[in-house]
Queue: 2 jobs
Job 1
Amino acid sequence: MSYQASESVSSEEYNKLWHNCWNTMTTKWDKGDVSPALRELIEEKKWELPSGQGIVPGCGRGYDAMFLASPSLHMVGADLSPIAVETATKLRDAKGISSNLVEFQTLDFFNFDVPASKYQVAYDYTFFCALHPSMRAAWGSRYAEIIAPGGHLIALMYPLFKSEEDRNRGPPFLLSEADYHKVLDENFELIHIDPHCKTHDTRVGEEIITVWRRK
Ligand SMILES: C[S@@+](CC[C@H](N)C(=O)[O-])C[C@H]1O[C@@H](n2cnc3c(N)ncnc32)[C@H](O)[C@@H]1O
């Protein structure tokens, strides 16, 4: 199932697409591992993770949430689909990672109870592009609501390139750095950008990692 970027669609209707993907286990986006750009950012200390609570919205099988979790950073992997959450939880248990470090929750990013202390960090990959372009402004405002002042949003931009015949359809929807500035600049400051970050082999030239600080 795909949509035109210009088409209008309700979020209820659009969300069915994701439930359908998980019901049929059609998860072609899944690369089976942590995104190389995120691993590089953290392991090569290009930017230092805070302590506190973090969230990965649209976490899928949860590799990135598991990678970021540590005794000083409790992570929540969040997904609309209970099947995704169950799959991620089983994977975490199979890896022997404690539920004290990372938990997976079924929730809608746009509508869930945010902890009083909010999140100190969020990681967004293949989530901005998974949303219909008409939902982008709400995506930016929602991150401003859930991230604590001084907290950070790590956004791995993807896909920055699509073929001519596919560029107006999604998900994933084509995006640009300007699309992020448009919806984040009011509440976030771009503090790190690496256009030469490592990428999955099949996504070379299609990704740029960024870190934004909540004002
Ligand atoms: C393209 S997949 C990416 C999954 C994961 N980030 C990865 O790279 O493997 C997008 C995910 O976002 C989830 N999703 C879509 N809309 C959502 C929403 N409003 N709230 C939470 N999760 C959502 C979908 O169920 C799906 O698992």
Note: The chain has six helices and nine strands.
Job 2
Amino acid sequence: MVTFTNLTRAPEIGANSYLLRSGDHSVLLDAGMHPRLDGWDATPLLDQIPEDLDAILVSHAHHDHIGSLPLVTAAHLGAKVLMTSGTAALIEPLLHNSVNVMTRQRRELGRTDYPLYTHRGVDDSAVIWELANLNRPIQIDSSEFEFVLHDAGHVAGSVMTEIRTDNHRALYTGDFNLQRQTLMLPCQHPSGPFDTLIMETTRGAQAAVPGQDRAFFEEALLAGIRQTFERGGAVLIPVFAMGKTQEVLALLHHARLEGKIPKAPIYIGGLGRAMTEVYDRQRTLNPRQHGNLRLIPEAQPETFDPRRLPNLRLRGGHIYLLSSGMMTANTTSHTIARLFFPREHDSIFFVGYTDPSSPSGLLRQAGQGGAVDWGDTAAVPVRCEVRYFDLTAHATREDILRWACDEIQPSRVLLVHGDPDAQAWFAAQIAQQRPKTEVVQPPPGQPIPLFQDLS
Ligand SMILES: [Zn+2]
Ligand SMILES: [Zn+2]
């Protein structure tokens, strides 16, 4: 029997990691780190990974899927580590950046357990990574497992993982998108039916509004930028350094060329620039739109030096595309936002998921005219414009439901990568639309059958 164990500690978007076992063989899907917890609490249930792990398959380069990879590879030296070239090129600098962040937190927060791994640990991990192509079967020595990676349309290099065994087929979606973004194409998923679907549920609690699709929000963002510039303001767009930075930069570049926004200077952060260089180098290797577009030489973003922050005077007509997306304390977007708060002609525009408890989430809740309390000073009045444009990298819940029911037609669905209310929505909808499909919310640390037991 093939079993599936959810190694994420709770039903949420945490340290995503899932273990497949068949007889003596085992394969790990992703090895993430919780985006909001600290220390070992932020890792998956690492002690449940068998010592003789055969392989690790990495779905994409987000921290909640890769942040624990150096820990897992160090503890399981015999495991093959497989990912696309896009993912490999992105995660090496990202993991080194994680070491820097943890080292800083060791000093600032007095966390003696940090860093959980070192630059040397990242290098030791990276030398054993193997590049895998899309759409080609990957065998795991002498096991019944065979895998095929399919483009997931989420960020550069992202994949959905098809899991084949002797008699069954399952699909692990990873994070995926069924619609286009500015650079990413819709996912190129394999055809159903599948026995089992292991499915991300990120947006299960967020209803899509009919008519408000990607193009709608792109135009709305550009209009918001135009209006801000017309009243002499500057725009801050808090973004993740990888993925969102490049998507928004491409959107703004094309908008400038088409005269939809003025030829404004765009500032990006140092890590954002490093990630953009990888996107440029990888532009023809991963499925995407605008395959010829080289963002650094063509969009010509300026690199923002955070050492300028203490003396920075905001200029109208400038766009600051800075990380982090959640405006985590000590990041550039967090610090620069305080300069925007008192200026009513400026704007802070969110373009992606914001955790409600993060500084970004709190600022969105406060809104223009409110007061935001980030815990480090007294509540601060927010006079600048604050808006949200849904340029998501994830499939909407409506798209996922339709796709799962009509195209994948699974007999068993395992709900992962979502909060309890998001998972509950999918569970209820699937029960209604496909009553014979078994829907499971895999309990942390407990092996369950990957495939429905038909005996
Ligand atoms: Zn992701
Ligand atoms: Zn994720």
Note: The domain at 214-388 is CATH 3.40.50.10890 (Rossmann fold).
